[in-house]
Specification:
About 80% of the residues lie in helices and about 0% in strands. It has about 160 residues and is mainly alpha-helical. The radius of gyration is 26 Å and the shape is elongated.
């Protein structure tokens, strides 16, 4: 009889220990979204088979996540891709916000190529919206940056526009 009682107490103790271990696993904090998630959201935002509202939602989700991760070259590249996705979606406000953020990031990390690309994208935007003076200004800024980098191919492509 004593053996059964001792065996019962040992089993109960082991069960409590196991339950305690499982609780620690459930309390683990949720990891922040990875940069892979951002790329997936941008791809979903560009997918024309999805509804425009859903596409906007995932693009804004990507925007908020990129802003929270800080400034580095990968975040800058993602922000540039994101601005073009907003442009494809005809979301002027989203494009202007993300393009401005991409320009700011490019300036912070001294990435002239990305900064020139952002100016070029903004020039195309103004050209589409029929604002020729602003379009000219940003085409010129892009051309000058490509000229300073010695990238004649892209300088010529900007002039072609």
């Amino acid at each position: 009889m004593n053996c059964r009682y001792i065996l019962f107490l040992i089993s109960l103790g082991l069960l409590c220990i196991q339950a305690g271990c499982n609780q620690n696993e459930q309390r683990s904090t949720k990891a922040p979204p990875s940069k892979d998630s951002i790329s997936t959201w941008i791809d979903q935002g560009r997918n024309t088979e999805l509804s425009p509202d859903y596409r906007k939602d995932v693009l804004y989700k990507a925007f908020q996540t990129i802003r929270s991760l800080g400034v580095d070259s990968l975040s800058n590249q993602s922000m540039s891709r994101l601005s073009l996705a907003f442009l494809d979606l005809n979301d002027s406000l989203g494009f202007r916000k993300t393009n401005a953020a991409a320009m700011q990031m490019s300036a912070q990390i001294n990435d002239s190529a990305s900064l020139a690309g952002s100016h070029w994208d903004l020039a195309v935007f103004f050209n589409i919206k029929s604002v020729p003076d602003s379009a000219f200004y940003h085409f010129y800024k892009a051309k000058e940056l490509y000229n300073k980098m010695g990238n004649q191919l892209y300088e010529a492509r900007v002039l072609y526009n």
